[in-house]
Design a protein that fits this description.
Layout lengths: L7 H22 L6 H14 L3 E5 L2 H11 L6 E6 L5 H8 L3 E5 L10 H14 L3 E8 L8 H10 L3 E5 L7 E2 L2 E2 L6 E5 L13 E5 L2 H10 L22 H33 L12 E2 L5 E4 L3 H13 L29 H9 E4 L7 H15 L1
Parallel strand pairs: 2-3, 2-4, 4-5, 5-8
Antiparallel strand pairs: 1-9, 6-7, 6-10, 8-9, 11-12
The protein binds pyridoxal-5'-phosphate.
Length: 377
C-alpha cells in the first residue's frame, strides 16, 4: 500500500491544467512581485475569514514577527505561548527581543490551557521581571484554541491576543472562522498546511485599520508613500505573484470540497479507532481543519512500537512534536527544566500523527486502522 502522509502530487494532478496555465501567464507577463493576483487573494482570504484586512507576506513566521514589531513588543516584555507547538511561535517572540513565557497545554485539545495561562500571567506580574504584553494562542493541528476564555483573560490583564493560525485555516468556533479570533491572526501557506502554496507564503488578518497600514509598510522595507520613501525599519516579506495565483485556485478547491472531505475522513478514523487509541477531541461547537490527525497512545513504548509497525507496512506517520519548547536547546537560556510542563512533556512521548489529506481513500484509512488494531491487540 502506497499512502502519502500529505499528497500534494495527487492534488496537483487534479488541478494541473489550470495551474499550468496560471503559472505560464505570469511567466509571460513578468509581474512576479506584487502582481494583481496578490491583491486579489488578499481580498478573497479576508472575505473567507470574515475580517476586514488581509496582508500577505513571505511566510507564517514573518507574519508573527512583523505583528510583534508593529505592536512595539521587545526587550523587557513577556509574551505567553503554548509549550507544545512548532518552534516558530516562540521563535518570533525571541527574534524581537522579548521573552517567550511557556504555558502548558490541554491534554485533550493540545491547545494552550486558559487556566494555566491565567496563573502564568499572575506569576509574571508578581515577579516584576518582565511586562506581560501579549499571548500567542496556536490553533494546533487545525483546531481553534479556546478564544472565549483566552480573550476574557486578555481583557482582564490588558494583553493583546495573536492567533497563530498557521495550522488553523478553515477551522471554526460556531460560525466564526479561524484567523478571525483575537486582535490579529496569522496563517502559513507552507505546502503541507491546510491551505498551502507551492513554496513559502503567509498572511496576517486584522480588523484594525491602523495595524493593517503599519504591516503593509513593514513588509516592504517600512515604506511610506513608496518603497524609496522609508518611514520605519522594516522587512522584505512579500508573497510572490505566482504563489498568490496558485492560492486563488487552491482556495477554490479548499472551500469547495477539501475541507469538508477531510472532516469526513477524520470521522472514519474516529469510528474505526475508538477504544483502541485516544482519538482527537473536538469540543462542542468547534470545527477542525485537520492540519493533522493526531492520536495519543498509552505510553512512549506503545507509540514507538506502533510507529515502527506502520512504517514496516509503508504507512508514514510523524511525531508532532517530539520535544516541547521549554526543552529546546535554543531556549536553554530561559532556564526551564524537565518536569516543568507535564502535559506537554507527556504529549511529546505519546502523540502520533497519521496520514490525512483530502486525497486519501476510505479504503486506505480502513487499512491503516486495521494495522493499528493488529499492532495494539
Ligand atoms: C508552520 C507554522 C508556523 C510557521 O509558518 P512558516 O510559513 O513555515 O514560517 C508558525 N506557527 C505554527 C504553529 C506552524 O505550524
Amino acid at each position: 500500500m502506497i499512502v502519502e502522509f500529505k499528497d500534494l502530487k495527487k492534488q496537483y494532478q487534479m488541478i494541473k491544467p489550470q495551474i499550468d496555465i496560471i503559472i505560464a501567464e505570469i511567466l509571460s507577463e513578468g509581474n512576479f512581485i506584487l502582481g494583481s493576483q496578490v491583491y486579489e487573494i488578499e481580498r478573497r482570504l479576508a472575505e473567507y475569514v470574515g475580517v476586514k484586512h488581509c496582508i500577505t507576506c513571505a511566510n507564517g513566521t514573518d507574519a508573527l514577527v512583523m505583528i510583534l514589531k508593529a505592536w512595539g513588543i521587545g526587550a523587557g516584555d513577556a509574551v505567553f505561548v503554548p509549550d507544545f507547538t512548532f518552534f516558530a511561535t516562540a521563535e518570533a517572540v525571541a527574534v524581537v527581543g522579548a521573552v517567550p513565557v511557556f504555558v502548558d497545554v490541554d491534554i485533550e485539545t493540545f491547545n494552550i490551557d486558559p487556566k494555566k495561562l491565567e496563573l502564568c500571567v499572575i506569576k509574571t506580574l508578581q515577579e516584576k521581571r518582565y511586562t506581560p504584553k501579549a499571548v500567542i494562542a496556536v490553533d494546533l493541528f487545525g483546531l481553534p484554541a479556546n478564544y472565549i476564555e483566552i480573550n476574557r483573560i486578555a481583557e482582564c490583564y490588558n494583553l493583546l491576543v495573536l492567533e497563530d493560525g498557521a495550522q488553523g485555516f478553515g477551522g471554526k468556533i460556531g460560525e466564526q472562522f479561524a484567523c478571525s479570533f483575537g486582535d490579529v491572526a496569522t496563517t502559513s501557506f507552507f505546502p503541507a498546511k491546510p491551505l498551502g502554496c507551492y513554496g513559502d507564503g503567509g498572511a496576517i488578518f486584522t480588523g484594525n485599520d491602523n495595524l493593517s497600514q503599519v504591516l503593509n509598510s513593514l513588509k516592504v522595507h517600512g515604506k511610506g508613500l513608496d518603497k524609496y520613501d522609508n518611514v520605519r525599519i522594516g522587512y522584505n516579506s512579500r508573497l510572490d505573484t505566482i504563489q498568490a495565483a496558485i492560492l486563488l485556485k487552491k482556495l477554490e478547491i479548499f472551500s469547495g470540497f477539501e475541507l469538508e472531505h477531510i472532516n469526513e475522513l477524520a470521522k472514519i478514523y474516529n469510528d474505526n479507532l475508538k477504544g483502541f487509541v485516544r482519538t482527537p477531541v473536538i469540543p462542542d461547537g468547534y470545527y477542525s481543519s485537520y492540519a493533522q490527525y493526531t492520536i495519543q497512545t498509552d505510553c512512549e513504548g506503545q507509540r514507538d512500537k506502533l510507529q515502527m509497525w506502520l512504517k514496516e507496512k509503508d504507512i508514514p506517520t510523524t511525531v508532532f512534536y517530539p520535544k516541547p519548547l521549554h526543552l529546546q536547546t535554543a531556549f536553554k537560556y530561559l532556564g526551564s527544566n524537565r518536569g516543568d510542563f507535564t502535559i506537554s512533556e507527556q504529549l511529546c512521548k505519546t502523540v502520533l500523527s497519521l496520514p490525512i489529506h483530502p486525497y486519501l481513500s476510505e479504503d486506505e484509512i480502513a487499512k491503516i486502522c486495521e494495522e493499528i488494531k493488529i499492532c495494539l491487540t
